[in-house]
Amino acid sequence: MGTSAETPDAERRRLAEADDSGVPWRRWGPYLSERQWGTVREDYSQGGDAWSYFTHDQARSRAYRWGEDGIAGVSDDKQRLCFALALWNGRDPILKERMFGLTNAEGNHGEDVKEYYFYLDSTPTHSYMKYLYKYPQSEFPYEDLKATNQARGRGDFEYELLDTGIFDEDRYFDVFVEYAKAGPDDLLIEITAHNRGPDEAPLHLLPTLWFRHTWSWAGGAAVPSIRQELNGPLRADHEELGPRWLYCDADTETLFTENDTNNEKIFGSSNTSPYVKDGIDRYVVGDETGAVNPDRTGTKAAVHHILTIPGGQSATVRLRLTATELPDWTGDFDTVMTQRRAEADAFYDGITAADTPADERRLVRQALAGMLWSKQYYYLDVERWLTEHGVDPLASDPRVRNSNWYHMVNDEIMSMPDTWEYPWFAAWDLAFHTVALSMVDLTFAKGQLDLLLRRLYLHPNGQIPAYEWNFGDVNPPVHAWATLFLYELEKHRTGKGDRAFLENAFQKLMKNFSWWLNRKDTDGNNVFQGGFLGLDNIGVFDRSAPLPTGGHLDQADGTAWMALYCQNLLEIAIELAVDNPVYIEQAQSLFEHFAWIAVAMNRIGADNASLWDEEDGFFYDVLRLPDGTATRLKVRSLVGLIPLAATSLVGGWADRRFPELVAGAREFIERHPAVEATISSHEALGPNADGRYLFALFGEDRLRRILSRMLDEGEFLGPHGIRSLSRHHAEHPYTFEVHGESYGVGYLPAESDSGMFGGNSNWRGPVWFPVNLLLIRALLNLHAFHGPEFTVECPTGSGRQLTLYEVAREISDRLTATFLSDADGHRPVHGAQAKFAKDPHWKDLILFYEYFHGDNGAGLGASHQTGWTGLSAVTATLFHTLGDGEWSARGRESLRPTGDREEPLS
């Protein structure tokens, strides 16, 4: 058992023990999702309607096939044994065992969780965690939320739980759940319920322990068991996990049932046992005494605390889940809990600058807590799933999704975008997750990048799986950028980069790069058609579907993403060549790929339909029709800003170390007039006075023209970051006529009015954190190249001249301000909700949404997407200690300082 002394290094010591000595500090963590129902994994329907096949209403009675969910839940890292909290206020029609929300069809803006819960704290080893759930004392308005939202249109606001009035007079419970580890397999649990209302109120707390269903129809052999003898602890036995004991400090009733489907209720067939998954719900809510097992054994058990809490008062329940029997499980409880809280404080003090204001510290801590609470056990054996659907894994069936991905076996802890709205991994989301996660757990972050490149994930043809609904879709190729970021960060921290990590990633990324070259360049002219690219509804047409015009799109963003991919891989190859000269040849090849893409981005073809529009000073997609004609789709969006993001800087050490690379590049340029013409027209690919090489897709003239639009508050520069669509389109929507039908794009600062991708995502105006971060990175690289003499007007038309470093900081500050409270306590992220601004029990709580209103910063989309919105922890700390001259002389992909070092570290 034992405890660590209270020092600022205690959590870092645990990380070192886990990484270097294999001590399993990460074995137990918040690995339950908030929602397993309605996922593709659980969908065995004929038509693939996952939301309807397995509903929230069924979830309390129907055993899951591939995972589990719960409130404030934890499990081991293979999700064999799970622990979570269930509650009942004496009025609800069902036990509250999981978060409720609307399906894609029920919400007027797509799926939407309708609960208030907050990830308040977590250390990277989960030695300490804290979670808050706000539970109403009146009957939960399930039907009101459904009916009212269904009656609203896409142009209406969403009907939220606060809007129902259920929190009026503060008649609710604040239920805090805290976990502290005395050892890797010794978990202390403290649950404190505060009655915020004026009157006494009842509350049933049911801490619940259960096994994920791995037996009978799920294919396992041995059935695990939970049992209790007399009034002792619960003992849980599993053939792989071994025994575990759950201790509780109160003499309370313990309820037992099985984690088996209630077939009678769900399918109308008989049950093999009278004790099924919803037995505890039926016992507590329905007063069915025969629904739980009187023999005190099963695969699911709950300790039933019936509390009556006076108004303004609280009650606390303590438990301990451990791998050893303890004669006195409470003896060190308070000491350990107090120490872990203090160690968590010390850990987070160590990652924020001393002068960081308290509100920004709060932002960083909650953002990173959300990142760590969003780690989830993700299990899906696709071949087995396909077989269970009656599909021959070797014979692709287009009627069943993911039938080409039979090789995939997912069986890992993964970082999820949002464990209710997106409880499945997404490739480009995950790359951005690792940037924020690297602030607290670099080893875990590196492991996440490695995961999607493993043979059980990466397709044999080289494609990286996109996301559960369609592994074969295409996300922007940012994996190499994130890999280089983490490599450079570790080298900066420790003085030594992880070459094995970098080389392993490079080999697999080159396979993926080849897949892009072979599959996404229709005409073989280095202009790419990435398709969907995660930007959902940003364009005139659905980019995942055949175009109504026929033909194809030459995508400015798809082409620019590939330019960035070339830059990243080129830098990795140069780094690896320090130890192995064989990589010089690959670096040369990648340089040539980038050069040809730069030519293609700037080329004006015979049809005068290049991606660059000289009149507008902006990049656009080009629609190429079957008859050979082409036209630009003149929508000013992030599509035209991604070329700016494809900007990297390499220090002069590379040409000194590898003169053959420089000679080869010069020979290539001189041999190809088109390349030479492109390079001679601007400084891209050329060194500055300090010998630094800028890799960019355009020169200073186009840079200034693009920046004048990006920094125009009437176009892209919003009060809370760079918008995804120019505000110009509010008064000037773009329309395109095809076969008598009109397709249009207008500025929508909040929710989308399009049903594309379910309508729960909008790239037609709101601010998105990940692309903003890439633009900040590009500005810093450009500043490192051009120096402080290069200034631009920011905002456009203001007369205020800023360096590109100052522009980057301006954008970063606007992003961060989304979450910070003003003098009145108002945080833009929470919109007009007065409760969050004025109530002392709400005002310090922050939600991290998927995207943000382009004009006022209000949070939109998924409300707990600290996946890539966890990057707010980066923007809140990025410029606190870094001055104008402290950025990398080499201009590597990371957003961290390296002083003036120009030689690679060995």
UniProtKB/TrEMBL annotation:
Top-rank lineage group of the source organism: Bacteria
Pfam families: MGH1-like_GH (PF22422)
InterPro entries xref list: 6-hairpin_glycosidase_sf (IPR008928), 6hp_glycosidase-like_sf (IPR012341), Glycoside_hydrolase_63 (IPR004888), MGH1-like_GH (IPR054491)
Source species taxonomy: Bacteria, Bacillati, Actinomycetota, Actinomycetes, Kitasatosporales
Domain Mannosylglycerate hydrolase MGH1-like glycoside hydrolase residues, every copy: 422-526, 697-866
The protein, known as: Glucosidase
Region annotation Disordered: where it falls in the sequence: 1-20
Organism: Streptomyces prunicolor
